[in-house]
TrEMBL record:
Name of this chain's protein: Transcriptional regulator, LysR family
PROSITE patterns: HTH_LYSR (PS50931)
Assigned protein family: Belongs to the LysR transcriptional regulatory family.
Short name of any one Pfam family annotated for the protein: LysR_substrate
Domain HTH lysR-type: 5-62
Keywords: DNA-binding, Transcription, Transcription regulation
Species this protein is from: Marinobacterium lacunae
Single GO MF annotation: DNA binding
Top-rank taxon: Bacteria
Length: 328
């Protein structure tokens, strides 16, 4: 079975190729010339090729050696840059976070002033990105993700629950009330605004309420909740969305539940994701503690808001149906 070259052999080879002489490479590596020659010999035997042409006291690369040298310098350059980046990151008070875009803009960003005020000596970087972090290739401390896709080998910690219900502008709701006699009739007539990446979709909500709509009915679809929410504010339809992302608008009355009696579904939605080893960093521990405190405050505020608006909350989607046969 073939074996890959050792890292030590590649280091010796790269130094000889760059310096052109074994003696210079030995001096650079602080080893004996015979040790360098032995490593080059072992590497050539392993690969089954000659890496150098030996002309008098000078060495020059063969075609195969040139190809290997280019690959080696590229790989060592990547390793060097990564080492420097990691070293600078560890030596500084820098916290790097990646967050789903709508959550970053509508929930996290307004609260960060409190965190910054409590930790003024820290450098904080927040990347709003729909793509999860690759912790093996990227320098990221922690990620805040939406949903429950498989994340094997990573530490996951629930942070914020979502409360999902149909939401629209007061004017849009009032116009529907004038022409509809029940929430069911409203659901049949509304213009749907879809947040296409949301866990709860309109098809699921309508099915649970046994509402059938014409497939030709126009719908608006957006891949960012922020955009879908803005269209509801503009009064063009009803969005099935999160009170986590619309709390300020619901509190101010800019948005309202389409029909409070339909209730809201609650489920764990946002979670902290990171390698377990990152949990040992003080900066990560402090940030997680802070965001959990913010999440608790947020949970209390949402519960009070929905209670004030007479919106019942259902933890289990199977229980979610005010349209039971007894109540029709």
């Amino acid at each position: 079975m073939s074996r890959d070259p050792s890292l030590n052999g590649m280091i010796y080879f790269e130094s000889v190729a760059r310096n052109g002489r074994v003696a210079r490479a030995a001096e650079e590596l602080n080893v004996s010339p015979s040790a360098v020659s032995q490593q080059i010999k072992l590497l050539e035997e392993l690969l089954g090729i000659s890496l150098f042409r030996r002309e008098k006291r000078q060495l020059s690369l063969t075609a195969e050696g040139e190809q290997l040298y280019l690959a080696a310098t590229s790989a060592f350059g990547i390793l060097h840059n990564a080492r420097q980046l990691i070293s600078r990151h560890r030596e500084s008070h820098q916290l790097i976070i990646r967050v789903t875009p709508s959550f970053a803009i509508r929930w996290l960003s307004p609260k960060l002033a409190d965190f910054i005020q409590k930790n003024p000596e820290w450098d904080l970087r927040v990347d709003a990105s729909p793509d999860p972090s690759n912790f093996e290739r990227e320098v990221v401390d922690l990620d805040i993700r939406y949903g429950h896709s498989s994340l094997a080998g990573l530490h996951c910690e629930e942070v914020v629950s979502d409360y999902i219900l149909p939401i629209c502008s007061p004017a849009y709701r009032d116009e529907l009330r004038r022409s509809c006699s029940s929430p069911l009739e409203m659901l049949q007539k509304i213009r749907l605004i879809d947040s296409v990446k949301a866990v709860m979709q309109w098809d699921n909500w309508l099915a649970r309420h046994r509402v059938t709509r014409n497939n030709k009915d126009a719908a608006l679809r957006f891949d960012r909740s922020s955009m879908a929410i803005q269209q509801a504010i503009n009064g063009v339809g009803v969005v099935l969305e999160s009170t986590t992302l619309t709390y300020d608008e619901l509190r101010s009355g800019m948005l309202v539940p389409l029909a409070p009696e339909m209730g809201a579904i609650r489920f764990p939605a946002y979670r902290i994701v990171c390698p377990s080893r990152h949990r040992s960093r003080k900066l990560v521990q402090v940030f997680i503690g802070w965001i959990l405190q913010q999440a608790e405050i947020h949970e209390n505020n949402i519960s009070a808001l929905l209670s004030d608006k007479n919106v019942p909350v259902y933890d289990d989607p199977e229980v979610f149906s005010y349209l039971s046969d007894e109540k029709r």
